[in-house]
Amino acid sequence: MLASFPLRAMTPPIPAVALSDGTEVPALGLGTWHMGESARRRPREVAALVAGIALGMRLVDTAEMYGDGGAEETVGDAIAGRRDEVFVVSKVYPHNAGATSAIAACERSLRRLRTDRLDLYLLHWRGSIPLAETVGAFERLRHQGKILRWGVSNFDVDDLVELLALPEGRHCAANQVLWHLGERGAEWALAPLCRSHRIPLMAYCPLGEGALLQDGRLLAIARGIDAAPAQLALAWLIGRGAIAIPKSGNVEHLRENRSAASLQLSPSTLATIDAAFPPPAGATSLSVI
Ligand SMILES: NC(=O)c1ccc[n+]([C@@H]2O[C@H](COP(=O)([O-])OP(=O)(O)OC[C@H]3O[C@@H](n4cnc5c(N)ncnc54)[C@H](OP(=O)(O)O)[C@@H]3O)[C@@H](O)[C@H]2O)c1
Q1: 20 lines ligand 1 (CB under 6 A)
Q2: Atom of ligand 1 nearest to the CA of 176
Q3: Test site for ligand 1: of 207, 254, 255, most ligand atoms within 8 A of the Cβ
Q4: Model pTM greater than 0.90?
Q5: Which residues on neighbouring strands pair with residue 219, listed in sequence order?
Q6: Fold for domain 25-276?
Q7: Handedness of CA 25, 29, 31, 36 (dihedral sign)
């Protein structure tokens, strides 16, 4: 029996993805990069996050890096009074991922988010601190209840193999990577490896930071099936088992993104997509932003 993160009843429901510990999270969440950078924009950003959560996109992805802590504070405003409804993900800088520095960084994130625990804490990217030391710190945070689980980000095959060889490496709950129609490198070796360890991929920049939505190939395919380009790009990722975390500060865009859950792509549309945005034909390393 899988432990379930409660998914709000809404038609059609957002599909659930199981993390490696069996916890289910919605396949569509909310990104926060570039939020929390301006006091003037903050009320609108908080309102957008609240709207996205109400639409069922109840996984919020943030990081100590975003807005220098400002994004975590913005998320703190958005989840105030509804903490138990939201699956909160944050990330530690590689240079803060040491035995004591990770504990301090996590405690700062908790204060900015005004919560007592993170649902998922990720190493933002691989740095120079030994992985075993970071995993040790994550495990300590987990035993203290400050994080419920941990994972990694921007880990390609070699890094993941090294992680999984550590005694507690199997506790890695997810790997957050660059993945969208225009960046399919993760599909060659990383996605199969993650699948074999039940580690789901979280797809960051699922809309190519917005640029993908201007791509003529995507526009033509979307027009052909009467879908919005963002809806199509996200439905494609959901169909591949990803947890997609688009960022939007615009409620109309959020509705469009949410509608990806109602779009089933037929085999012929998937073939058209593969012809327009070919999957890797050989060993391809993971791109990073
Ligand atoms: N782990 C990592 O290293 C890493 C790296 C990058 C990003 N991330 C995470 O992934 C999240 C998503 O990536 P991202 O924010 O870089 O890029 P993204 O989600 O691919 O694209 C965001 C851009 O798309 C626009 N947009 C969103 N929905 C739209 C729609 N329906 N129609 C038209 N435009 C739309 C947004 O503008 P509006 O606000 O106007 O809608 C924004 O400009 C980040 O916010 C962050 O949480 C993680």
Answers
A1: no
A2: 1
A3: 207
A4: yes
A5: none
A6: TIM Barrel (3.20.20)
A7: negative
